[in-house]
């Protein structure tokens, strides 16, 4: 990538060259690290950024200055995330919250699974309880009527598949409810299907379905940028050489404002997808 920036008042250009699109993500990563709140959403988003850039801390643009600091921030984030776990095994929105949220629990589990895959030590009993909570929320999926509740179950299925606990029978339940699924929910379901086995035609069929969206099936979580990023993640998992990948990359990069995606989830999902 070559980016030229005009030097103010000099009429000269400086050219920066990088061999990865990660070079475009420093501002977004810095935003995630600097977020001031400790809710489950921001804690997870910050952790995802730190884990993705663990081997490339230079992209954090000064938010992290050395590897020991980065590792300490990751350990602290993992501890803080599990401090939101309650007796049911799920994660509340804040430490001390009594009621777990399915969406926050599924999102948080993605960071824990990624940390585990990176070889980091996590609290295994707490992790198992969290996955058990996600599984325990799936019965009755066919009767769920609220759009946000349908959507968060698609994320839960992806989180379980990413943790090597695929639930294929529930994939079928949600496939039968395609009109009820937002674009983002369809991408999460495609990721769940593709992560459960070798990339399949079924995942592609979900991503390319012509089944129209219901009027009230807009995404309840994230924003337009995160929607694009999650679809990009799904295509990369299923068919990384498909022309849709470059289309979505271009769409995602165009969606930036001031070099980032203007929200916690927009930045986090974009960082995951583009990395």
Keywords:
single chain; mainly alpha; 55% helix; disordered N terminus
Architecture overview:
55% of the residues lie in helices and 4% in strands. By secondary structure, it is mainly alpha-helical. α2 packs parallel to α4 and α6 (147-162) packs parallel to α8. The protein is globular and about 50 Å long.
Short description:
It contains 12 helices and 2 strands, in the order ββαααααααααααα. By secondary structure, the protein is mainly alpha-helical.
Q: In which order are the strands of the major sheet placed?
A: 1-2
Instruction: Report Rg.
Output: 19 Å
**What would you call the structural class?**
mainly alpha
Question: What does the average pLDDT come to?
Answer: 86
Order of helices and strands: EEHHHHHHHHHHHH
Task: Give the uncertain stretches in residue-range form.
Answer: 1-17
User: What percent of the residues sit in helical stretches (DSSP H or I)?
Assistant: 40-55%
Distance between the termini: 14 Å
Major sheet size, sense and barrel closure: 2 strands, antiparallel
Number of strands: 2
Beta-strand percentage range? under 5%
- The dominant shape is globular
Number of distinct helices? 12
Secondary structure: elements and pairs:
Elements (H helix, E strand, L loop, with lengths): L1 E5 L6 E5 L8 H9 L5 H13 L14 H16 L19 H16 L6 H13 L10 H16 L5 H8 L7 H14 L4 H8 L15 H15 L4 H12 L9 H11 L1
Antiparallel strand pairs: 1-2
